[in-house]
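Weekly modeling sync, notes
Attendees: S.R. (lead), two postdocs, one rotation student

Agenda item 3: backlog of single-chain predictions. S.R. asked that every request posted to the team notebook include the full sequence so nobody has to chase files. The rotation student volunteered to paste the first one in as an example of the format we agreed on. Action items at the bottom.

Example entry:
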Amino acid sequence: MRALRTSAVVVLAAIAIAACGHKLIAPGDSHTVKVYPDEETYEKIKELKNQSGPMAMFGGIGESIAAKEVDNNTPIRVISSDAEGSQIEITDGPNKGLQGFAPKENVD
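Predicted structure, as returned to the notebook:
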């Protein structure tokens, strides 16, 4: 019985450690990842940047104001996920405690 209990504790600890192993991944040659306040803001900025002319410029300006740049490989906790990305919380570093939205291509 004691061996079974010890095994159960080890398995639960392994699951907990594996669940906390997420990090932010910067695209291409970049050294930072943009973390948006929420998914709605990300969607609005993405839509503006996909338009042409001045609207695309406004999207870039909005992104620089709304999104926080976080270092590559920063450890995170995934709060929830969907097809677009994940609601995250940064667990270490200078931005520890920051919560926001990261696109799926930036979450490992």
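Discussion: group reviewed the output briefly. The CA atoms of residues 81 and 87 lie 6 Å apart.
Action items: rotation student to repeat for the remaining queue; S.R. to check formatting next week.
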